[in-house]
Automatic annotation (TrEMBL):
Residues 4-235 form the ABC transporter domain. Keywords: ATP-binding, Nucleotide-binding, Transport. This is ABC transporter ATP-binding protein. It comes from the Bacteria. Gene3D superfamilies: P-loop containing nucleotide triphosphate hydrolases (3.40.50.300). It comes from Oceanobacillus kapialis. Pfam families: ABC_tran (PF00005). One of its GO terms (molecular function) is ATP binding.
Length: 274
């Protein structure tokens, strides 16, 4: 049974004189607890699709169903984690984490205890009364993850949450986020430009093309890779095989080669970042 269903979703951006087809006939089905990645060049509609799933943007055509019910703009089932952490600098860490419960009027001692436990789970004990300015970029993103999880969303929407971090911090956070979401059996959708990140974290990869945005191919990540932590996935023999297949699919799409940036890692393998 599908947990999240997109059925022939299209979206047009209208101006005074014409319109732009941002998405065309996007259909996909996601199981509960599944982690998928949306991969493709800039302008292919990845973030627009995420906003539609979140109920922030109303799609022009098609259906978006969560547990067979239409998603509503006010639905609390969605948790959003972005490239920037958007922590309020004048609020303490615990105050930032508990923004959601405060807005919804559900703040109490039990929620505070849960927030403290989540901070400890992600390796940030005893920082509740600190301020964001005292934290590194990676620590701030961990706080953002806790803030998102505290609201107990059914689906986490991750819009390039690691792209502003240095590479070492990014790899550590991939491991942390992957392990945390698996422990809570959370469904997640990751938007990324990074092929390696998509392979390391996802169960399936949806490659998109632009003008208009459509799903061009779906790659199933081998079970051997899905059973490993993201950092270890990059060392697995099957990683490079899948990487090359995804790379070739992206290379076939017009304009993709200008979007991709090759990185030669310490082990000499080709990877993609940015």
């Amino acid at each position: 049974m599908s947990f999240l269903t997109l059925d022939h979703v299209s979206h047009h951006y209208f101006s005074a004189k014409n319109y732009t087809k941002a998405l065309k006939d996007v259909s996909l089905s996601i199981k509960e607890g599944e982690f998928i990645a949306l991969l493709g060049p800039s302008g292919c509609g990845k973030s627009t699709l995420l906003s539609i799933i979140a109920g922030i943007v109303e799609h022009t055509a098609g259906q978006v169903l969560l547990e067979n019910e239409p998603i509503k703009p006010s639905d609390k089932a969605m948790g959003y984690m972005l490239q920037q952490d958007y922590l309020f600098p004048w609020k303490t860490i615990i105050q930032n984490v508990m923004i959601g419960p405060k807005i919804h009027g559900t703040t109490n001692a039990a929620i505070r205890q849960k927030a403290e436990a989540l901070l400890e789970k992600v390796g940030l004990p005893e920082i509740s009364e600190s301020y964001p300015g005292a934290l590194s970029g990676g620590m701030r993103q961990r706080v953002a993850l806790v803030r998102t999880l505290l609201n107990d969303p059914k689906i986490l929407l991750l819009d390039e949450p690691f792209s502003a971090l240095d590479y070492q911090t990014k790899l550590k956070l991939e491991n942390l986020v992957s392990a945390t979401l698996k422990s809570y059996n959370k469904t997640a959708i990751l938007v990324t430009h990074d092929i390696g990140e998509a392979i390391a974290m996802a169960d399936r990869i949806f490659v998109m093309e632009a003008n208009p945005g459509m799903i061009s191919k779906i790659f199933e990540v081998p079970i051997e890779l899905r059973q490993e932590a993201p950092f270890s996935v990059r060392k697995h023999p099957k990683y490079q095989m899948l990487f090359d297949k995804v790379w070739e699919e992206l290379e076939d799409k017009e304009g993709t080669s200008a979007e991709l940036k090759v990185v030669i890692e310490e082990d000499g393998t080709r990877n993609e970042n940015g």
